[in-house]
Every structure is written in structure tokens, then in C-alpha cells.
Design goal:
This protein has helices at about 5-30, 30-40, 50-75, 80-100, 105-130, 130-140. It has about 140 residues and is an all-alpha fold. The two termini are about 25 Å apart.
């Protein structure tokens, strides 16, 4: 028996898309502010070598947002995006905690990473609950 309906899962991935798009595009748009929120007042914001990796990271966050939107439109396709999202969100969460404990970043990224951790749990629940549907599709297509 499913705990969560397909409609709720679809809405969850849509919210996940908005979350990622807002963070990725928002941080790209307000880049200097995002640097200061991550690293504090001493953040280097005018050196392309120092900022380019973070710009790519924010772009990737937004691209994942587009992927979650695709999942929200069709839950049976794009499961690979969900797997990638779980892995990426766990890496972000653990990395932010690690660097926060080393006093290299501020608390705000950790809180955002905790949001990602919540999505990781929900995405994992989705994959677990829909695993039998995928197995049925594979058996049906192999005939």
C-alpha cells in the first residue's frame, strides 16, 4: 500500500523544482550576497578564479530544478534524475556540515543543506514506493 499518492509526489517534485530553481537562479542573480552569506564579510567576490566554481555550482542547482520539474510532469520517467538528485543532495548536506564544523562557512548553507536532506528522504520514499511499478513495466515490456 502506498503511503503517498502520485498527485502528492508530483507536487513534491514541483516544489523541489521551485526550491532548486530559486536557489540556483537566485544565487546567480544575487551572487555577491550569496558569497557573503556562505563565507561572511571577507568573501572574495571580484576574482573570477575564486568565484567561477560557485557559479557553476549554482547553475547545476538550477539545472537539477529543471530535472525535478520534468519528474513532476511524468513520475514514471526520469527516475534517474531522482537518483542523481538524492546523491547530489546528500553530498551537499554532508559537505556543508563538514565545512561549517571547520568554521569555513556560515550557518545559512547548512540550513539550506538541511532542506536538501529533507528532499533526500522524500525522494527516497518515492523511489521505494514506486519500485514495484518499475519492475512491472520491465516485465511487461520484455514480454
Amino acid at each position: 500500500m502506498k503511503i503517498i499518492s502520485d498527485k502528492v509526489y508530483s507536487d513534491m517534485f514541483f516544489i523541489g523544482a521551485l526550491w532548486n530553481l530559486a536557489i540556483g537562479l537566485g544565487c546567480l542573480t544575487l551572487f555577491r550576497l550569496s558569497m557573503r552569506l556562505l563565507y561572511g564579510a571577507k568573501a572574495v567576490t571580484n576574482n573570477i578564479v575564486a568565484t567561477l566554481p560557485l557559479r557553476f555550482f549554482y547553475g547545476s542547482v538550477a539545472i537539477f530544478g529543471w530535472g525535478y520539474y520534468m519528474v513532476s510532469r511524468d513520475l514514471k520517467k526520469n527516475r534517474g534524475i531522482v537518483w542523481m538528485g538524492i546523491l547530489a543532495k546528500l553530498i551537499i548536506f554532508v559537505t556543508f556540515i563538514y565545512y561549517y564544523l571547520k568554521k569555513n562557512i556560515k550557518i545559512i548553507p547548512v540550513l539550506l543543506g538541511f532542506g536538501d536532506f529533507i528532499f533526500t528522504i522524500l525522494f527516497s520514499l518515492f523511489l521505494w514506493e514506486t519500485r514495484n511499478n518499475v519492475a512491472k513495466q520491465i516485465r511487461k515490456s520484455s514480454g
